[in-house]
Amino acid sequence: MDFTIDDEQRALRDAVRDMASRFAPPEERDKVPTGPRAHDAKAWTALAEMGLLGLPFAEDAGGMDATAVEVVLAAAELGKARVQTAYGEALVAASLLAAAGDQKALLEKVIDGSALVLPAFAEPMRAWAPHDPSVTASGGSLSGVKAPVPIAEVDAVLVTACEGDQTGVYLVDSPQVSDGALKLDGTAATKLNVSADDLDAALNLGIVALAGEALGAMDAALAMTVDYLKTRKQFGVPLMTFQTLTQRAADMYVSVELARSTVLYGAMTLAERPSDNATASRVKVLTGRTGRHVGQEAIQLHGGIGMTAEYAVGHYTTRLTAIEHTFGDTRYHLGQLARDVSDHAEVDVFA
Amino acid sequence: MKRQLSDEDAAFRQRMREFFTTQVPEDIRTRWAAGAEEGMDDLIRRSQQLLNANGLAVPGWPKEWGGQDWSTLQRQIWHEEMQAASVPPPLAFNANMVGPVIAAFGSEEQKQRFLPATANLDIWWCQGFSEPDAGSDLASLRTTAVREGDEYVVNGQKTWTTLGQYADWIFALVRTDPKAPKKQMGISFLLIDMLTPGITVRPIQLIDGGHEVNEVFFENVRVPADQLVGEENKGWDYAKFLLGNERVGVAPVGSIKRKLADAKTYAASIATPTGTLLDDPLLAARIAELETEVMALDLTVLRVAANSKDGKPDPASSILKLRGSQLQQDVLELIVDIAGPMGLQWAAGDELPGWATHSTPTYLNFRKASIYGGSNEVQRQIISGGILGLKG
Question: Going by DSSP bridges, is the β-strand pair A136-138/A117-120 parallel, antiparallel, or unpaired?
Answer without folding.
Answer: unpaired
